[in-house]
Amino acid sequence: MADQNPESVQSVTVAIYDQTYHLRGDDAAYIQRLADMVDDKMRLVASHGKTVDSLRVAVLAALNIADELATLERRYQALTGSVQQTSSSIRDRAHTLSGLLDAVLEDERKLG
Length: 112
Known about the structure:
2 helices
C-alpha cells in the first residue's frame, strides 16, 4: 500500500476482536479480508487459552500468523529449489543428448 494513488485511497472501517479500526487503502475488500483473518486468528487463540488480555491475544495471534508465513516461505523455497534443480537437470540431459545426437550424425556421415 506504499505507492497508492491518492484518488484511489478509500477509508475502510473494520472490526478486529471487538475493536473498531478506521483504515485507509486502495482495496477495501482486501483490507476487510485481512481484518477478518486477524480477527479469526485472535478468536482462535483466545478460545484455546485462558487469557482475556487483548494485547496478549494479539501477540499470540501475530506469532501464529508469523509461524504460518515462515512455514509457507520454507515450502516456497523448497519448491523453487526443486524447480531450479529440475531445470538444471533437464538442461544437462539435453546437452548430453545433443552431444550423442551429434556423434550419431557424424558417424552417419562417415558411413554414407
